[in-house]
Every structure is written in structure tokens, then in C-alpha cells.
Design brief:
This protein is mainly β. The protein has strands at residues 3-6, 9-12, 17-23, 32-38, 45-50, 58-60, 68-73, 78-83, 92-99, 114-119.
Amino acid sequence: VQLQASGGGLVQAGGSLRLSCAASRSTFTRYATGWYRQAPGKEREWVAGITSGGMGSTYYADSVKGRFTISRDNAKNTVYLQMNSLKPEDTAVYYCNTYGLRVSQVRGSWGQGTLVTVSS
């Protein structure tokens, strides 16, 4: 299933953005979904995840805990990442993907991602 991330842009430090990850069919109720990011010159890292069952349990990397919120809208086949109190170090290309038992076990190919730039 092709996942499409969108919603990136340029924002000042302290600002907010909401990213969206849309699937072509019901996917997120079957598989856990994560947001990942890759900053220039760095490896891709996991940022947040939501499990497939019920409303979904959420998990966050320490670097974004308390600032980012992942959520899911099953009717729209969309997963969101609400990013508040953004910092320049949040600048990266953000991707979404489903994963297996571990966040590193991504199931799909990486799309183009969406660029988030946070200015100081």
C-alpha cells in the first residue's frame, strides 16, 4: 500500500505543524504505523508510533515526547502527527510507514516524505 506524507513546510521555532499520512485503503487498523525523520547528514530515525488495535496505543522518541502527538482517523485512512513547540533540530524530511514487531521492521517502501524546516 502506498503511503503519502504531506503537511510539511517552513515554521519558526516554537510554532506548530500537522503532518498527514494517507493510505489508499484501510491499512492503519491492520498494522502499527510510525513517523520517521531524516535530518541532513543523519540516519533516518523513528519519531512516533501508534498501534493498530482499537484507538491505538502511542509511543514517542524521547526527543519529541510532550511536543508531538500521533493520532489516527480510521474513516479517512489517515494518520496524523501534530508537532508543537518545534525546534530547529526538528528540521528533517518526515516519512510514514507501517511496521512489524519493531519500529525498525518497516513493511513498505519509503515515499518521498515531507520536508519540515524550523527556523531559529
